[in-house]
Design goal:
This protein is of the alpha+beta class and 419 residues long. Helices cover 67% and strands 10% of the residues. The protein is built from ten helices and ten strands. Helix 1 (2-125) packs antiparallel against helix 4, helix 1 packs across helix 5 and helix 2 crosses helix 3. The longest helix is centred in the N-terminal third of the chain and has 124 residues, at 2-125.
């Protein structure tokens, strides 16, 4: 009994003595846990800082590359839009050519039908009449009719035969005149259609040459783009793919708003193109003779496809506005134009839209009334200009530009122009 009591007392004493040690162990364990948590947090923070630093290094590393990609992407988009305009023109010419060929086939069918009718009528009237009127031999045709008349049995019979013979001769003569007139009309129509087909084929060849030139430029830009970092290129091309999903109609609807915003931003920044002066400039009031061809001017202008639009811009870097681009291109060839489109609209001589020739300046009312936009006409209803999306080709007959067309001015007389 005593031993059991002693054991209980010892056990209780031991329990009470062990309580501070357990609490101390728990405290030490919590301290260790907090220390590990703090270490992990610090590690994550350090890792996050490392990621941020790596990201900064990558951004710095890819900055120049990204700028090159963006510049190439803008040029590619501009070239693709230009090619689309050219391809539409080629498709229209091809459709027109098929239409003209169909009309020519229809006329040939009519002519064959007339020939068949001539043969049938000739058979009905007899080989004698056919020989007389088709060969124009009076001796062979006239004498048999005289014999018919001489064989009459009476005056009444003679008159009846005479009336019958006269009727046949007159009827056959009218028939031949009608057929000859129809043949002449068909031949004239065939001649006009052949002339139109020749004109369409010439236009088609010009567009195909322009298409080939732009396709080569596009291939060059795409080759350069393919040489740049693939990851960065994928990101940019994805963005371009989204942009390319925007329809042409939406782009046209946004055109004026974007140009207006650019102009407003430039004016807000205090930029006024009219303040630019050129000491060597002399306002052109008549046609300026040019010994070269328009092709040399066009070849120079198309180098700037994809160059950004900059309000007040007069050079490739940082970019052009519409009149700055026109002034820069012609200034390269010693032809000095005024600075703004409103003043350029007073230079040279006015020409109707139906008489447009490559090298003429075409003017439009866009963000404000009057001549607020200008481009260089290159033929086939296409102009090259600096608009809100940069230097590119535009079709002056599409819904946007045709509704804003103001007029055209001719400032240069090329050797191959007949005015």
């Amino acid at each position: 009994m005593i031993n059991k009591r002693k054991l209980c007392i010892i056990a209780c004493i031991t329990f009470f003595l062990s309580m501070p040690l357990q609490a101390q162990a728990q405290t030490n364990s919590q301290v260790q846990t907090d220390s590990v948590s703090e270490t992990q947090t610090n590690n994550l923070q350090n890792e996050l800082q490392q990621y941020a630093q790596q990201e900064q290094e990558l951004n710095s590393q890819f900055s120049d590359q990204t700028q090159q990609e963006l510049a190439l992407d803008v040029k590619i988009l501009s070239l693709q839009q230009s090619l689309q305009t050219i391809n539409e023109g080629i498709a229209n010419d091809q459709n027109n050519l098929l239409t003209q060929q169909k009309q020519l086939q229809d006329l040939q069918t009519k002519q064959d039908q007339l020939q068949k009718q001539r043969q049938e009528d000739s058979d009905k009237l007899g080989n004698l009449l056919s020989t007389f009127y088709q060969n124009g031999n009076e001796d062979e045709g006239f004498l048999p009719f005289v014999e018919v008349l001489f064989e009459s049995s009476s005056m009444s019979d003679f008159l009846d035969r005479w009336e019958y013979v006269s009727y046949i001769i007159n009827d056959f003569e009218q028939l031949n005149q009608k057929l000859s007139s129809s043949n002449a009309s068909i031949s004239k129509q065939q001649s006009l259609i052949n002339e139109e087909m020749t004109s369409i084929q010439t236009s088609l060849q010009e567009k195909e040459q322009l298409q080939q030139s732009q396709q080569q430029l596009l291939s060059t830009q795409q080759t350069l783009l393919a040489q740049i970092n693939s990851q960065e290129k994928t990101t940019i091309l994805s963005s371009l793919n989204l942009q390319s999903n925007i329809s042409i109609v939406e782009q046209l609807m946004q055109e004026q708003g974007l140009e207006t915003s650019l102009v407003a931003a430039g004016r807000k920044a205090g930029i006024n193109p009219a303040d630019s002066t050129d000491a060597n400039k002399s306002i052109i009031k008549q046609l300026t003779p040019f010994s070269g061809s328009f092709q040399s001017i066009f070849s120079y202008a198309e180098q700037f496809l994809g160059t950004p639009y900059v309000w007040g811009g007069t050079s490739p870097n940082p970019g052009f506005d519409c009149s700055g681009f026109v002034q820069y291109v012609y200034g390269h060839f010693g032809i000095h134009l005024d600075r703004v489109s409103q003043d350029q609209y007073t230079e040279g001589v006015a020409i109707p839209e139906s008489d447009l020739k490559p090298g003429d300046l075409v003017f439009f009312s866009t963000y404000e009334a009057g001549a607020s936009h200008v481009g260089i006409y290159i033929g086939n209803n296409i102009m090259i200009d600096s608009e809100a999306y940069g230097v590119s080709f535009d079709n002056i007959t599409n819904s946007y530009w045709s509704s804003r067309y103001l007029g055209a001015r001719r400032i240069v007389l090329f050797e191959n122009n007949n005015l």
